[in-house]
């Protein structure tokens, strides 16, 4: 911003490269690289309008020999400047000029991934060590659960057999009880019939007894009259 112009929230710079000779390993005759910088500190990178990572752009340039410090034209005094560099900086410059920076960069990335993988493996081993006792406990619980299910299945089978036997035994006993009840009902019926017959005979005998008593009474009176008449003579 300035005194006459407000501050902007974003700035963008674009670089267009001629790739008609296919120096860049990408299927475009013209390569447009853009960077957007936001006031928040965030950066975005674009390759032919597609958002990419900074690493993708660096790899593309490194593979074409256009690294950050590659010099395509050696100007006057550049050799003296190169010789004045520290040994590690001079080696980096020569590696970029020789085109091996990309491979060193990939080697570094590979080593970083290997270190990350080793850290992940170490973490996995720690997690395995933490959960192994729990897994063993769960295995014991699962074994007890399987044993319980097997025992429960055997018990259900035995109960089915026992209930079936008890059911059939109950049906047999019920049938026997019904037969005994019918037998006793028939016996009671015959006994009641005999009692009724005996009661009828008893009534008949009592009636006969009453008739005989009256007849005996008449005979006695007649005998007494005859005895009185005989005495009077």
Describe the secondary structure blueprint for this structure.
Elements: E1 10-18, E2 30-38, E3 43-47, E4 50-52, H1 54-64, H2 78-84, H3 87-98, H4 101-232
Overview features:
single chain, 233 residues, alpha+beta, 4-stranded antiparallel beta sheet, 4 strands, rod-shaped, P-loop_NTPase, RecF/RecN/SMC_N
Give an account of the 3D structure.
Residues 5-68 form the RecF/RecN/SMC N-terminal domain. It holds the Pfam family SMC_N. InterPro entries: P-loop_NTPase, RecF/RecN/SMC_N. This is Chromosome segregation protein SMC. The chain is an alpha+beta fold and 233 residues long. It has a domain at 8-75. Helix content is 70%, strand content 11%. It has 4 helices and 4 strands; from the N terminus they run ββββαααα. Strands 1-2-3-4 form a 4-stranded antiparallel β-sheet. 2% of the residues are buried. Mean pLDDT is 81; it is low at 68-76.
Mean pLDDT: 81
Distance between the ends? 187 Å
- The coarse silhouette is rod-shaped
Query: How helical, in percent, are the residues?
Result: 55-70%
Structural class: alpha+beta
Count of DSSP strands: 4
Sheet with most strands: strand arrangement = 1-2-3-4
- Low-pLDDT runs of 5+ residues are 68-76
Please write the string of helix (H) and strand (E) elements. Answer: EEEEHHHH
Main sheet record: 4 strands, antiparallel
What portion of residues belong to β-strands? 5-15%
Number of helices: 4
* Rg over CA atoms: 63 Å
């Amino acid at each position: 911003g300035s005194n006459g112009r407000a501050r902007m929230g974003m700035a963008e710079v674009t670089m267009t490269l001629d790739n008609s000779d296919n120096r860049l390993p990408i299927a475009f005759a013209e390569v447009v690289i853009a960077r957007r910088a936001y006031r928040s500190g965030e950066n975005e990178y674009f390759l032919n309008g597609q958002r990419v990572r900074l690493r993708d752009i660096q790899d593309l340039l490194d593979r074409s020999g256009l690294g950050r410090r590659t010099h395509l034209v050696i100007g006057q005094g550049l050799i003296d400047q190169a010789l004045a560099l520290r040994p590690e900086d001079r080696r980096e410059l020569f590696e970029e000029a020789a085109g091996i920076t990309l491979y060193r960069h990939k080697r570094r990335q590979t080593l970083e991934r290997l270190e990350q993988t080793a850290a992940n493996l170490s973490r996995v081993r720690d997690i395995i060590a933490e959960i192994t006792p729990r897994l063993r406990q769960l295995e014991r619980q699962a074994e007890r659960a399987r044993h319980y299910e097997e025992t429960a299945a055997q018990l259900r089978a035995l109960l089915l057999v026992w209930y079936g036997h008890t059911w059939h035994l109950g049906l047999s006993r019920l049938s026997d009880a019904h037969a005994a009840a019918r037998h006793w009902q028939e016996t009671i019926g015959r006994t009641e019939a005999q009692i009724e017959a005996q009661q009828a005979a008893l009534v008949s005998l009592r009636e006969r007894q009453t008739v005989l008593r009256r007849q005996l009474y008449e005979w006695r009176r007649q005998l007494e009259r005859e005895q009185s008449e005989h005495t009077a003579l």
